[in-house]
Write a structure and sequence with these properties.
- The complex is a heterotrimer of chains A (about 250), B (about 280) and C (about 280).
- Chain A has nine helices and ten strands.
- Chain A is an alpha/beta fold.
- Chain A folds into two domains: about 160 residues, P-loop containing nucleotide triphosphate hydrolases (Rossmann fold); about 80 residues, no CATH class.
- In chain A, a hairpin with a 2-residue loop joins strand 1 and strand 2.
- The radius of gyration of chain A is 19 Å and the shape is globular.
- Chain B is mainly alpha-helical and about 280 residues long.
- In chain B, the strands form two sheets. In chain B, strands 1-4 form a two-stranded antiparallel ribbon. In chain B, strands 2-3 form a two-stranded antiparallel sheet.
- Chain B is globular and about 55 Å long.
- The C terminus of chain B is likely disordered.
- Chain C is an all-alpha fold and about 280 residues long.
- Chain C has twelve helices and two strands.
- The N and C termini of chain C lie far apart (about 45 Å).
- The model of chain C has no long low-confidence stretch (mean pLDDT about 90).
- Classes of the chains: A alpha/beta (about 250), B mainly alpha (about 280), C mainly alpha (about 280).
Chain lengths: ~250, ~280, ~280
Amino acid sequence: MLEVIEVSKNFGGLQALDCVKLHLEENRIYGLIGPNGAGKTTLFNLITGLLPVSGGSIQFQGQELTSLHPHQITRLGIARTFQNIRLFPTMTVLENVLVAQNIHTRSGITSIFEFKAQGDKRLRGEAETLLQQMGLWQKRKEIGSSLAYGEQRRLEIARALALEPSLLLLDEPAAGMNEAETEELLDRIQEIRNAGKTIFLIEHDMSVVMGICHYIYVLNFGKLIAQGTPEKIQANEAVIEAYLGREEA
Amino acid sequence: MLGSTYSLIAMGYTLVLGVLQMLNIAHGDVFMFGAFLGLTLAFLGMPLYWAILLAMLGAGIISILVERFCFRPLRKAHFLGPLLSTIAFGILLQNVATQIWGSEPSRYPQTTEIAQFQLGPILISSFHIIILATSLFLMIVIDQFVKRTRMGRAMRATSENQTNASLLGVDIFRVFTFTFFASGALAGVAGVLTALVYLQITPFIGIRQGLIGMVAMVIGGLGNLRGAMIGGIMIGVMEVMNDAYFSAGYRDMIIFGIFFLFLMFKPEGLFGTTERQS
Amino acid sequence: MSVYLEGVLALMGINILMALSVYAILTTDQLSLGNAGFMAIGAYVSSYLTVKSGVPLLPAILVAALASSIVGLLIGIPALRVKGIYLVMATLGFGEMVRTFFMNFEPTGGAYGFRGPSGATLPLIYGWVLVTIFLFWLLTRSRLGRSLDAVRDDPEVASTVGLHVTLLKIGVFGLGAFIAGVAGALYAHYMFYIESNNFNFLVSAMAVLFVILGGMQTFWGAVVGAIIFSILPEALRFMKDWRLSLYGAVLVSMMIFRPSGILTRETVRNLGERFTGIFRTTRS
């Protein structure tokens, strides 16, 4: 479904990514791990079009992504969350989700005249379902930033799901979570996958990665140093060195 | 030539923009106040250089008021807060000036003999020489001041990073005050000098002159003192050329057109260094 | 109604429109200090049409506002590349360009101004004001309004939730210019005479101040700001000579003591709870 072909990215003199090759198949959960600064979030930024590639190509279901704008890429079916949770600060919980649904309806100038649009009812129902699933429906009228950390994360995921993507990119979704919350998160990710979606997640929490990923890619200094199933990765020399080496330094 | 007065105004803008990352829209009206202070002093019989000096002082003090009312209270707010406040303050200054001196043009007294001579199609008077000389002198003074003195270093440190400067022992509030004072003083001088050329001033001359000064600053490169100097002189030259060879009417439109184009396509100006993030 | 009162109300109506034109662009976090330029285009184009070409008033206003909005869209495009203070200065420069252009443009009178446009009555002006307010109200409650909020909050994230940020940012320039164009056309046809200095930087600046002081978080702030600060100079008449200075002092004090403006989102929400329905800003 997603092909990352020989993708490179440099910022001036800094080579953030170097000839990275990835292959994602439908309805699987993929992990992207590596020490800090390895280029993981940069890769997400390239896939979602927030940054241009310096070389290589990215194809999603046959479509070339590197020449598209972020909103076009989103409309093709790719959604993401951010490492440092970026909700819309002045909008309520419900509004954060509703605005993500704008891509499913006419939301241009004509929308200001629509009060009881047909599509609107269905969308509101979907929004409610999503928020109920995330346990946020009660707080729907509160401003996003007033929520607890874990709730904010769930809201960001709900917002991404509202886009009805086929590929979901999660950037460190378990960061800052305790054990109980992490368990819940794992369950939710499984649910999302069971609903037919493909998931690609960046994580540092190994219990999450090894726990639910079918296949893992490992980056270090912008290069792909290993890939494989969790078992293979855990035993991989290069990976262990990359992490241990980092701890020593 | 008036170009050098534009330079002075532009330098004033640059000082505040560089050190405090803020656009002081009241600057043009401080300039206007300087002109009026000079006028009042001249009418009281004071000789030219004393009038300039005291007008400088007065304008500097008013500029400090801008700092106190528009910048200090809003420092932590949205970055546009101080800017918008200076718009209001500028209006206040215009209204006060109208109150004191009336909105009708006021005539500047002719105090000194003017010698005039022709240079090509351009008429130069001894006033122009005085203006040029005074402006150049002040430009050099400010330039050297920022480079060599303690306060100058403090200003540069503050412009880089206020928090760090403060941690290194710089009294950033004194730096703010001084920067505004210097900025205002420059504007004040420019005000008197400009008034000597135009001989008639109204409380609203600050609007145009302030804007032209802003253009000079942008052309020279935001945050760059020398660029501001050069920008001002370039505009002055351009004005004269335009009036001599082209159409005097469209002169301002051309200036603002250049302003617009620079901002869109070359915002770092001719000599700009790093772009100051708002 | 006395002529004096009518004049005050007429200008207040124009000010409301100008404030809304600034607000429209501000919805995407772009501050335009040059809306007087759009106002001028509306004024001169409509005046030319009615006076020199005999076009009836209403179509003339629409055509003029359309012309203004096209220029607005054109400005919106390069505006994308400039941020913050640069954008403020660029719009300022634009406003001055337009003003100095009309100061020299002979077909519309140049420095002598343009005499003759007439026909704008108080009801007409407020008709436009009410229609515009109504449209903003609709906008606030619509999906488009929600998109604009998202763009203002975080344009990068907005693009990742599928919003065409570029189009929205340019579009609001067109919208703001349209409204300012209407304001200009109405102004011209009320005053019987316009000259380029009627559209100077001060006009742009006051429009911005109306929005900021009234409260930039909702469009009601722009309306209230325009109303209060249009009336204030008149209300201060008892101060006689010093009233304008006092006016300036009030402006500065407001910025110090209540920089978020008179109406914040909170205030409007609370007021809205009381007048259920009409003033609500949330769409949920």
